[in-house]
Design goal:
heterodimer, A: alpha+beta, Arc Repressor Mutant, subunit A, 3 domains, nine-stranded mixed beta sheet, three-stranded antiparallel beta sheet, 17 helices, 19% strand, B: two-stranded antiparallel sheet, 2 strands, 4% strand, flat, binds zinc ion
Chain lengths: 550, 157
């Protein structure tokens, strides 16, 4: 398994070869795993000539050269859909995938006279996320109306927080995976605010109409606005994936990008290195995978750098672009002509949101260990960065690992079992670690039984797969199946002698120099012992007998 | 600031030049008085006392006259020249009233971020299905199958 940018226990991965257009600096290729359908994409052949912004005479070296002169400035707005039972301002159920237009009421339909009442969970989740992102909380914040007219917004305005968000001025720490140069980065968080989602629009391909499902209208969101602190697609993708980890660790959202529970809009500009002022900002939307964030940004950096380089910087305009995953490029969605006038004003139907210090403190003390703290703790335990990133990536995996070492298992061994055989099993069976019957207790037992020589590593693997699929205990299985390792040299010697005597032809070949046949003999003895022979003893005794001058 | 807020109120009410929020509420409570599930939300509230939300820029007592055409445009309503003519002075009156308010010396008053209301009225996160959903759907003129049908609009802003 290649090392990946997005370590996840989810199955499926695809490898993406960096193209000339997307290649930046030292990076020549990268592989990304994301939870989606399995795709293997190679863009090498079709990319550069197809792209309208990469003239044919630009070799990749030329592009690399151009890119060296520019710096990208990237900020991200992340919308997190909260996993509350009800909507933000009414008691309609908040269920993804309900029959269209069934989770509606006068409040979320914007009928006259219906008044919003804030869901207490939304405040709680806002505080949790704000604290997790190291923000200052506003003990008094308020809601505002943001006016815009679109069919997915029945009221004609969105209830949001404008000038006084619930949280602001924080930061988040991420570890860049080794294959992308490694290192630790801190990105600023400008603000976190509470707001409501709009409905969902389905555009018909044929007709001149769209269909609206208002189940999502009024569903609570937290919007996280980052400082423009990121400089590459990789950094941005790592930031976004840290947001996903954090909301999942906190339990405020399922963070599912495909379902739209975690949506990232990227703002990006480039400037010649050394220039203080920012370039023209372009927004990219429709990024529903971390890999898409990374590639859309690298595409945009290249596009803008080439325009600069060709003296066409004036063609970089303030606009919103849509990432097209199929074509691996972005296209203009709309130009921004003047700033949109949302005519914010204080929401007259909602009181201010007041937090007491006691309330904030009680939430602070109930926060789980967050991904960054976990990574630092795993690092301090002596695990390598690759192990650290893998284990801390998925909160369920991390909890499982913590429970296993809590039962006294050796750290490195526990990490190895989880990252190799267990991860492979989960991938093959398309399961999450919470779905398997193996308990942390039994994995710890298994590791101990192998370590103290009760069973061989090979038997250990057999037991592991039984435990994963059927449950049970290590001790029970060892007894029931008589799996205790044979460590009696006399018993092993008996089996070795038998195998040697039964294979005279191979013995002769071995003694004539085909020493590779040792493996054959070892295999035969192991087979005879039903995998129970201690491998060290077996090899030692076998070599003695094979090399004996009788 | 208060003026801006007012303008937004005005322009967000598409059907008339000017509606007070009080009138919206009154209409509303009669329209939904038969719906028990709404009662918990229609609460009596203290009269809103508007305090300056932000550091007040009191030097703007000379307020700009309203650009009614632009207001209408941002609220996506069409007004005839006659209606613009008619609305202009009314809106002007309201703005002048805010101009008077802005003259009040509030330097000694602690800024409130919101008009004062009974705070702490948060809701439990317990789902409740609104009974008369059919009524809502039936009242949508373009409801087809399970969806609302609207003209195709791709360019969201
Ligand atoms: Zn509702």
């Amino acid at each position: 398994m290649s090392t990946t940018l997005f370590r996840t226990i989810q199955p499926n991965q695809f490898t993406l070869l960096g193209t000339a257009l997307f290649r930046r600096r030292r990076r020549s290729n990268f592989s990304v795993r994301c939870c989606g359908t399995q795709t293997t994409t190679t863009h090498e052949a079709k990319q550069p000539s197809q792209s309208r912004i990469a003239p044919k005479n630009h070799g990749s070296n030329k592009l690399d050269e151009i890119l060296r002169d520019y710096e990208a400035v990237i900020g991200i707005e992340t919308h997190v859909q909260l996993s509350t039972f009800t909507k933000a301002f009414c008691s309609c159920p908040n269920n993804y995938g309900s029959h269209p237009n069934t989770s509606i009421c006068p409040v979320c339909m914007g009928l006259p006279g219906a008044l919003p009442v804030l869901n207490s969970k939304v405040v709680e989740f806002g505080v949790r996320l704000g604290l997790a992102l190291n923000c200052d909380l506003s003990l008094k914040s308020k809601f505002d109306r943001k006016q815009y007219f679109y069919p997915d917004l029945p009221k004609g305005y969105q209830i949001s927080q404008f000038d006084i968000p619930i949280a602001s001025g924080g930061y988040v720490d991420v570890d860049i995976p080794l294959e992308f140069g490694g290192g630790h980065r801190r990105f600023g968080i400008t603000r976190v605010h509470m707001e409501e989602d709009a409905g969902k629009l389905l555009h018909s391909d044929t007709g001149d109409y769209s269909q609206v499902d208002l189940n999502r209208a009024g569903v609570p969101l937290l919007e996280i606005v980052s400082e423009p602190d990121m400089r590459s697609g990789i950094e941005a993708a790592e930031y976004a994936s840290e947001m996903q980890r954090i909301v999942r660790y906190l339990g405020v959202s399922n963070g599912n990008m495909q379902e739209g529970s975690l949506r990232c809009d990227v703002n990006i500009s480039i400037r010649p290195i050394g220039q203080a002022e920012f370039g023209t900002k372009v927004e990219i939307k429709n990024l529903n995978a971390f890999s898409a964030i990374s590639r859309a940004i690298d595409f945009e950096i290249s596009r803008q750098a080439l325009l600069y380089n060709q003296g066409q910087a004036d063609q970089i305009v303030s606009e919103t672009r849509l990432w097209e995953e199929g074509a691996q490029k972005s296209v203009t969605m709309r130009k921004k002509e003047g700033l949109a006038d949302y005519r914010y004003f204080p929401e007259p139907d909602l009181p201010e949101v007041i937090l007491t210090q006691d309330y904030v403190d009680s939430i602070r003390s109930s926060l789980p260990e967050l991904p960054e703290a976990k990574r630092r703790r795993y690092e301090a335990m002596g695990l390598g960065m690759q192990d650290v990133l893998f284990l801390a990536n998925d909160v369920s995996v991390a909890e499982f690992f913590d429970a296993v070492i809590g039962k006294g298992a050796e750290v490195k061994l526990a990490a190895n079992w989880i990252m190799s055989d267990i991860a492979a099993y989960l991938k093959n069976e398309d399961l999450s670690i919470n779905d398997v019957k193996l308990t942390p207790q039994e994995l710890a037992e298994l590791i101990a039984a192998i370590k103290d020589g009760t069973i061989s590593g090979k038997i250990g693997k057999q037991i592991l797969f039984e435990l994963l699929a059927k449950g049970g205990t290590v001790q029970g299985m060892i007894k029931a199946k008589d799996l205790v390792q044979i460590t009696d040299p006399a018993e092993i010697e008996k089996m070795v002698l038998k195998v040697v005597s039964e294979n005279p032809k191979q013995l002769e070949q071995y003694r004539n120099g085909r020493t590779k046949l040792e493996g054959y003999f070892a295999g035969q003895v192991m087979k005879m012992s039903k995998g129970k022979a201690n491998p060290g003893l077996l090899n030692k005794i076998l070599l003695e007998k094979l090399n004996a001058k009788d | 600031m208060a003026t801006r807020a007012l303008l937004a109120v005005i322009s967000s009410s598409p059907n008339r030049c000017f509606i007070s929020t009080r009138r919206i509420k009154n209409q509303a409570s009669s329209a939904f008085s038969t719906s028990p599930s709404l009662h918990f939300q229609i609460q009596s509230r203290k009269t809103h006392r508007i305090a300056p939300s932000f550091s007040s820029d009191t030097n703007s007592s000379a307020l700009q006259p309203p650009d009614v055409s632009r207001l209408a445009e941002t609220a996506r309503i069409s007004l005839t020249p006659a209606e613009i003519e008619e609305c202009g002075p009314k809106i002007r009156q309201v703005i002048d009233w805010f101009g008077q308010l802005q003259k009040v010396d509030v330097n000694s008053v602690e800024p409130a971020i919101r008009a004062e209301m009974e705070g702490g009225n948060l809701r439990e996160d317990a789902p409740e299905t609104f009974e008369n959903r059919d009524g809502i759907r039936d009242s949508i003129p373009s409801f087809e199958g399970t969806y609302l049908k609207v003209p195709k609009v791709l360019n969201k802003e």
